[in-house]
Amino acid sequence: MAGIRFAPEESPDPTQQHPPPQQQLHTFREMASDDERSVAADSWSIKSDYGSTLDDEQRHADAAEALSSAANFRAASDYNSDKDEPDADAMTSMLGLQSYWDGAYADELVNFREHGHVGEIWFGANVMDTVTSWTKTLCIGISQGHTPNHIHENKPEPAEQDDKYLSCWSVLDFGTGNGLLLQELAKQGFADLTGTDYSEGAIDLARSLADRYGFSNIKFLVDDILETKLERQFQLVMDKGTLDAIGLHPDGPIRRMMYWDSVSKLVSPGGVLVITSCNLTKDELVQDVENFNQRNIAMPQEPNTIKDQETHRGFPPFQYLDHVRTYPTFMFGGSVGSRVATVAFLRN
Question: Which long-range contacts (CB under 8 A, 24 or more apart) does 43-48 make?
Fold first, then answer.
């Protein structure tokens, strides 16, 4: 979406970067028509194994003309620069506006009703499979009391044992879109599943697909993560691309701060937040959390309950837990990176 992020050379873990400019999503400078909006979605997403909203390959060629070039690159020496320069992550795009998603999901709902297409799987089916299986292992490890460094060293157990551990995890997927991520989590053994999206069209589509594939137990609600009306907390909260879209809003920097304030209230103490991003590297996500932690500790708190007082007694809200290390990597400019980052954070 934005430009490549080069990792510092001293970083011990391979960090994620983004593909060369010809594979980057270009941002819009002006409001786009419905056709341009559809082309933009095609350029950012990957064709789904379930089906696609694309009519033909010509739409891919049209994307080059419909989108304006905005790929930005920073050298490795500028990766952690304190210079006052525009944040590429905050570049405005139609993908940051609710009007875009309302139109996109209205189109996908029509395609589903007329042709049976489920729409796009953001980041692709392989990434979704990786996220769900990795998250399953993560949650089972936590349920078994393993420390973060040893979570993924668990010995395989029978499927019925997995269900025993996972059935008690309450799961929220905000910005759920067509809800397919929740369907895959249900296949892994999670049972208490809720999906929210601020687009009514997305929720209509998600409900229709869940009914079609026999997942009517998944709850879907219209809700804006930045102004959430949810009154419960969840042990597992999933974000696959929502933070990316929020960062592309014209008020992206402010909305990202609102994002962390809201999300922190939805993850129960001891719960896990899993973020998958194609616009932020693992290190950038960790830094985003660190920035929020520092703001939270420095900000005077006015807790309403004893529980709130204990929560805000100088402890950072989140800590880094783990990240996916198995995504395919590529070499670019002498550095190794991947096109997607998935990072888990523990709610203290």
Answer: 43/67, 44/1, 44/95, 44/122, 45/120, 45/121, 45/122, 45/123, 46/120, 46/121, 46/122, 46/123, 46/124, 46/125, 47/120, 48/118, 48/119, 48/120, 48/121, 48/125
Q: Mean per-residue pLDDT for 125-133?
A: 96
Cα pseudo-dihedral 52, 122, 4, 248, rounded to 10 = 110
Helices 98-115, 34-44: inter-axial angle, 10-degree rounding: 80
For residue 260, what is the DSSP state? H
Q: How far apart are the first and last CA of the chain?
A: 31
Residue pLDDT, tens place only, 213-238: 999 999 999 999 999 999 999 999 99
Give φ, ψ of 203 to 5 degrees: -65, -40
If DSSP codes are grouped into helix, strand and coil, which group holds residue 302? coil
- Mark out the alpha helices in the chain (DSSP H runs): 34-44, 58-66, 98-115, 125-143, 159-166, 180-188, 200-212, 242-247, 252-266, 282-298, 306-311
Asked if 135 and 274 touch (Cβ cutoff 8 Å), the reply is: yes
Rounded-to-integer distance, Cα 277 and Cα 341, Å = 5
CA–CA distance from 234 to each of 39, 170, 348 (Å)? Answer: 35, 5, 13
How much is the pTM?
Answer: 0.71
How many Cβ atoms are within 10 Å of 231's Cβ, its own excluded?
Answer: 5
321/188 Cα distance (integer angstroms): 21
